[in-house]
Amino acid sequence: KFRFFREIILDPFVGTGSLLIPCTYFGSYCYGADIDARILEGKNSKNAFSNFDQYGLQKPDLWRMDFSPRGCCIRAPPEGLFDAIVCDPPYGIRAGARKSGSRRKLIKPVPEKYKENHIPQTQVYESYDLMPDLVDNAARLLVQGGRLVYLLPVATETYTDDVLPKHPCMKVVANSEDFLTMKISRRLVTMEKILSYDINKQDMYRQETRKHANLLKDNNELPGKYGTEGTKLTKADRRAMKKETREQRRKRKVEKLTTDS
């Protein structure tokens, strides 16, 4: 059971806030975070709050933050803070994830006069790095019995449950599949916090979750506009892939009609 009549929900990749709308509708008090300030601020009077205004819902509290160990600035009490964390992390299919940091070896300090409005540099946040951080932060921030719910696009042919990040304080209680294309599906994974998070064991927890990062990296290569070796596909390659997809779709229809008859 949750502690309060109104559950406290966090979406650490809030974007335009679509996942928090149903949470707010059903009475939860919501927080959201995103590293892209442009999404939060919006454009032409349209921003993350616009959807909540449209439905007459209470607006969530929004922060500019990422969920990496360096970027997550939430300090939770030992008993946890949030009843649930719900998110659809960016995986690079339509938009790539970013985190605080710089690729430069030498980072110049920010002059004092610019610090107040300074927006830190960001760098690419690979999914195999993002997932262990997400699960570890969830284990730290959730109350006992709280749940982490996230979506994970996977390569259908190579997917196994082993690629899901594990954590000593969390257990998977649900894992369902939604097919997007013939090669890509989306897993809706729910994890529940079963043990208290010991901050003194944080390094051990992170090492444990990192063990599965390599499995996710090696066995979940999503097909996209780039080839397996990182080379960009030509227009001819993409046309051939689309043609092959159409032919496979047509073949399935013929097989179905044959079976039905």
TrEMBL record:
Protein name, as recorded: Ribosomal RNA large subunit methyltransferase K/L-like methyltransferase domain-containing protein
Compositional bias segments (type: Basic and acidic residues): 232-247
UniProt cross-references to Pfam families, sorted A to Z: UPF0020
InterPro entries: DNA_methylase_N6_adenine_CS, RlmKL-like_Mtase, SAM-dependent_MTases_sf
Residue span(s) of domain Ribosomal RNA large subunit methyltransferase K/L-like methyltransferase: 8-101
Keyword field: Methyltransferase, Transferase
Ranges where the record places region Disordered: 218-261
Annotated Gene Ontology cellular component terms: cytoplasm; tRNA methyltransferase complex
GO MF terms, alphabetically ordered: methyltransferase activity; nucleic acid binding
Record's keyword annotation contains Methyltransferase: yes
GO annotation (BP), single: methylation
